[in-house]
Amino acid sequence: MSRNSAAVTRQKRALTLALSAGLVLAGQLAFGPGAAYAASASACAANPSKNNCDHVDPTDGNRVCMRNTWEVSGYPVVPKYDVNYGGKPVPVRVELWWSETCKSNWARVVSTGYSGRAEVSVWRKSDGKADQYTHDMTASGTWSALYTNLMYAASPDQADACAQDQSTWGGCGPYK
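and the corresponding structure tokens:
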């Protein structure tokens, strides 16, 4: 084998090794322990826990997590910061919901006259973990209500719901 072909062979091996390492790393990132895990609503209902319930759509799996639910709290948002509403309630209602079946909360925001981009979030008080959803709301119609995925909690009062828009209002409740 000539020096030139030996050098080319070494380069091909190095390139193959580098590509293989890159593919292994990409696979670990995509499918390894750091990848996001989305359980199902059925798994959450069968065995409620953070692993089985966090970030699960409450309407998934024949709406199993929507059974035996109630609104824990609901109120118009009184802004913690405000440009357009003069300290008065923003025309949205933020709600915290509880699923007894899935031992989890989720948040919902409903337009009562507001149109624009809104974010709703639910956060677990014990560790600050949260789920949020952002979308353009309409005063009435298809996008008049937005909701988050589930966050597991041992009881309904161990979470809170907040809502905000991109720039002018935001709040978690009457006095927060």
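(Above: one complete record from the training split.) Residues 124 and 159 are 4 Å apart (CA to CA).
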